[in-house]
Amino acid sequence: LSTDDEDTFKILIATDIHLGYLEKDAVRGNDTFVTFDEIMKCAKQNEVDFVLLGGDLFHDNKPSRKAMHNCMEALRKYCMGDKPILFEVLSDQAVNFGNSKFPWVNYQDENLNISIPVFSVHGNHDDPTGADGLCALDLLSCAGMLNHFGRSLSVEKLEISPVLLQKGSTQIALYGIGSIPDERLYRMFVNNQVTMLRPREDENSWFNLFVIHQNRSKHGATNYIPEQFLDDFLDLVVWGHEHECKIAPVRNEQQLFYITQPGSSVVTSLSPGEAVKKHIGLLRVKGRKMNLQKIPLHTVRQFLIQDITLMDYPDIFSPEQPNVTHKVQAFCQQKVEEMLEEAEKERLGNPQTPEKPLIRLRVDYSGGFESFNTMRFSQKFVDRVANPKDLLHFTRQREAKDDEGIDFEALLSRPSSEVLQLRVEDLVKEYFQTAEKNMQLSLLTEQGMGKAVQEFVDKEERDAIEELISYQLEKTQRYLRERHVEASEEKIDEEVSVGLRGGKKMLKPEGRTLGVRVGVGCKGPDRERRREGTFNGS
Amino acid sequence: LSTDDEDTFKILIATDIHLGYLEKDAVRGNDTFVTFDEIMKCAKQNEVDFVLLGGDLFHDNKPSRKAMHNCMEALRKYCMGDKPILFEVLSDQAVNFGNSKFPWVNYQDENLNISIPVFSVHGNHDDPTGADGLCALDLLSCAGMLNHFGRSLSVEKLEISPVLLQKGSTQIALYGIGSIPDERLYRMFVNNQVTMLRPREDENSWFNLFVIHQNRSKHGATNYIPEQFLDDFLDLVVWGHEHECKIAPVRNEQQLFYITQPGSSVVTSLSPGEAVKKHIGLLRVKGRKMNLQKIPLHTVRQFLIQDITLMDYPDIFSPEQPNVTHKVQAFCQQKVEEMLEEAEKERLGNPQTPEKPLIRLRVDYSGGFESFNTMRFSQKFVDRVANPKDLLHFTRQREAKDDEGIDFEALLSRPSSEVLQLRVEDLVKEYFQTAEKNMQLSLLTEQGMGKAVQEFVDKEERDAIEELISYQLEKTQRYLRERHVEASEEKIDEEVSVGLRGGKKMLKPEGRTLGVRVGVGCKGPDRERRREGTFNGS
Fold first, then answer.
1. What is the DSSP-derived secondary structure letter of residue A191?
2. Catalytic entry in A125, A213, A241, A393
3. Which residues, in sequence order, are CB contacts of A25 under 8 Å at separation 6+?
4. Residue B194's closest CA among B153, B237, B156, B228?
5. Rounded distance, CA A23 to CA A19, Å?
6. Per-residue model confidence as pLDDT tens digits over B84-112
7. Tell me, what's the ipTM?
């Protein structure tokens, strides 16, 4: 498989490029753009047949103009030209790309001279939102620069029609699922609602390639996708979303397929997984044989992380020493110097690698030690590391958890890199769980509200909450009209509670409904006005 | 000129399409998209050589995904294909499109099969902003779907290099100026800083076409561009920005050129100018002769406006009558019915025209009459007009103006269509003028702050204010360092005031500086911390 011939597909595999991540940062602002350029240039230099991306091409659901512009620039620069495309699409493209206004693979559009088609599923960062269900990839798709596939419109069942590709004698069935909330996809799998369609002819002659963008590691009982859920007819799974580079294919011994996890091409959190050297893959497929060549990325900013636990050095310092904080500080400084030295050595001979590395020193100061001013400490390295603000991180072994409700203050005061990882839904959930009973709402479900707030915050969908509320209000009004409830307030409240207790599906399209009254303390004129306003459609 | 031959340029002219205007409105949401489709389809049907747009293709500086998607869809649908392009670009395209990453006209890109090139300047709605100086048109440009020209990087002088086009024996020199704040452009003209370069050869053989997007009517002494400012060698000026359709070319008898003002293709304010029937133009140019054919737009929502002054009907009602408000209401209702009838008649035979018209009745109730509840009045027409919320508008002859400061409450409670027209800079200006003296800032200029707030609000540039403040702070610090001011607070304040009073240019890059103290009441530790933080670059 090391020789390239007319029967061998050459596919560049990458994922989680997160264009636009930290784009306002004076030091790191261009990192994602530079690395995307490196990746696409690599695709061109290797004359691949196509590029396969595993989601999160963009970091923000609504990418900045700069991010979108830089992305299009690289795609136009590296993916257009006169190189002939040597493979065919055999499947029904109107099904594969049904969501597009131009439902065919871009290289077959007679108005576009594509040299390297790019195929991508969307990730959780760049997923479709809003009334039109568009995502950033759809803009690229509409511009003819990318082929967005693996898109599903149903939230209850998935039927995945592969893109069928043929080059010489080799046939690839390309399956994909764009990011879906893990719990939902988990439920669909458990309820047997995920079907992967297979080509009618020569079922066994196809190389079955599958791209997924979900949690691979277990984040909770149903908050990930167990590998075993995936069909065993697959040959290779490209797993996006997980940022640690584990690109060498690993065999799942139960299902007998291989999994490659390319990992992100940019460090978005200062955690150990991201310190693993970043790679992309050059996948060769001939017949049903494959070979995946690791290609190191040279433009990725180095990241070194180290943990120290002060208690582990009883010979050097103890909390009782008078000058202990000073000693700890000197010790930390020495550790950082060592990491910087290591980074510098490694960077030698790699002129594309940015000068300043990311460095994180995690200091466990349990056992009576005191932390010190990290700002002042960081000043010493301000010109030598890319992340002076969060260079040092103090941790303590977990204390007993305070259960008396959610502490927003504490949450918001966490360092920014951790706030970013807090999931908005969790905040909403905790809020609903801890809110006073008589403050709760009856017509809005926890899950619906959680989803709306998340879209509002994470995806900048400004109308998400308003849309949810109008939707629920309308449903309730329809229910009341259908039951001919007269306009007395008590009766309406009663009917609504009955509707809720009776488990009428129409009142809770998603998730569990909190069976408590709406509008307690909101009586008379307000109520009246609201009713008049809404029934009259204004 | 009515026959199309190989020497005749056919150019479709349109402007102010405002894609995305009111896109969330349940009734009017798609209006701009539908009309843009009509315009581009018209270009295709007429087999024009190119489309020329006069700015404000987008309503929002950061168009929604839907607006961008719909725009690209229409461009790809109507402007790509096998129709040969029969004209050449003779000028240096690296100059004409110097701001683009692909600085050549899109139809000459060998990877794009363009049938109708679109040329556009930017308007005030879709102008370049932010650190990268990109605008929405640049995204289309980067995607190869549009040719953005008339872009200038200097704020002090303009040197306009025309795009030189040749078809058969006809030569067009196409000049353009993307929108610039009127005052600035006025000043540049007055200071002779606007130069329109002319082709070296056969200067008099060229048809000189110029596109501008500025105020044409006088909004203040220097807040517009007098027609006389424009060079008299021009043949035709396409004037964007003004929404009233005055597309028939009018000769400026002083300069001896013609001006066509196509007007917007969507009604964005309920004012009389917008009630003029909307058109686009089909311009034919042969040699130095031209002909402009008006093409009515069929998809534009009808808009009828009427003014009534209650005092003008002393025979019907007087303020003293007991039932007068009731009578007025009935009278208004009748007027609206008449307008609806007129609209319906006109709409007959135009199946593309949306059903519900825009209707505005302006009622001058000066002279002791009382207004009535417009909400309740509008309810009667909620299913028949597109704008029930602002159907009726009460006016009164201007009262003596209250000078005791700006009344934000009153401003914000105006009907939304008027709030949209309020200029943010005006609010900031009024705020600065009325703020208590001791609350004012000394390092921030009124104009700089006004501009930053405007970008923040109008253009959704979230970093505009922060950037201004960092910029001014840095300048001040540099000034202080250069003068070796010691770190005593009094001395610094003193130096800063000297710097300000002395009129040092570095302290006020734009506009007049308000010579009052900064940070009054902010002493000691706060001051110290701020200084430490910024001098150390964190």
1. T
2. A125
3. none
4. B156
5. 8
6. 999 999 999 999 999 999 999 999 999 99
7. 0.80
